[in-house]
Amino acid sequence: MTQDVTEGGTDERSPADTGSGPGTDADTGAGADATARFVERFAAEMTAAGMQRMASRVFAALLASETASMTSAELAERLQISPAAVSGAIRYLSQVDMVSRERDPGTRRDLYVLHNELWYETFTRRDQVLTRWEKILREGTDTLGTTTAAGRRLAETAEFFAFLHGEMTGIMDRWRAHREAQHQAGAQN
């Protein structure tokens, strides 16, 4: 049994509960090394795209975990980082709706869980942001007038966001249809 100390208290858990037992993505050896390399490579890409470094690492670790959920202690151990670093990363990921905190049934520990349909939800929220920006830009265009360089620039930016919104809606519709077809094909096999 191992002990896990979290914000909610201390729990005794077997190696299978911690994600470090046989047959998990935390196995020692080549599988764990390959997973760790993937986590660091994907985290580096996300960091290069603008996400905070530690949040990128925590997100990638959750993404690569078999259950898409881990405790603070598991994340700290897996990534060899401090609990404070995990806490800061989780705070950021929660603020941008990429993870949520859930209580592990029957225990006093918190699990950090990736959202279902994470990418779909993320892009849907981005689409909503684009719509709000477009509205504000159109108001700015009305204020500055299309006879000014600034007004024309705002109008063009608003048009760009309107275009993205339309394209994003179509992409999301095609994704849902594609995913459903994949699920149906998998069910038939």
**Poorly predicted regions:** 1-27
What's the total number of strands? 5
Number of helices: 7
From the alpha-carbon coordinates, what is the Rg to the nearest angstrom?
A: 22 Å
Structural class: mainly alpha
The largest pleated sheet is described as: 3 strands, antiparallel
The portion of residues assigned to helices is: 55-70%
Percentage beta strand: 5-15%
- First-residue to last-residue Cα separation: 40 Å
Oligomer state equals single chain
What keyword list fits this structure?
189 residues, mainly alpha, extended, 5 strands, 7 helices, 65% helix, two-stranded antiparallel ribbon
General description of the model:
By secondary structure, the chain is mostly helical. The chain contains 7 helices and 5 strands, in the order E-E-H-H-H-E-H-H-E-E-H-H. It has helices spanning 15-18, 30-48, 53-64, 72-79, 83-95, 118-144, 149-188; strands spanning 2-6, 9-13, 69-70, 99-103, 110-114. The strands form 2 sheets. A 3-stranded antiparallel beta sheet has the order 3-5-4. Strands 1-2 form a two-stranded antiparallel ribbon. A hairpin with a 2-residue loop joins strand 1 and strand 2. The longest helix is centred in the C-terminal third of the chain and has 40 residues, at 149-188. The chain is extended and about 65 Å long. The two termini are 40 Å apart.
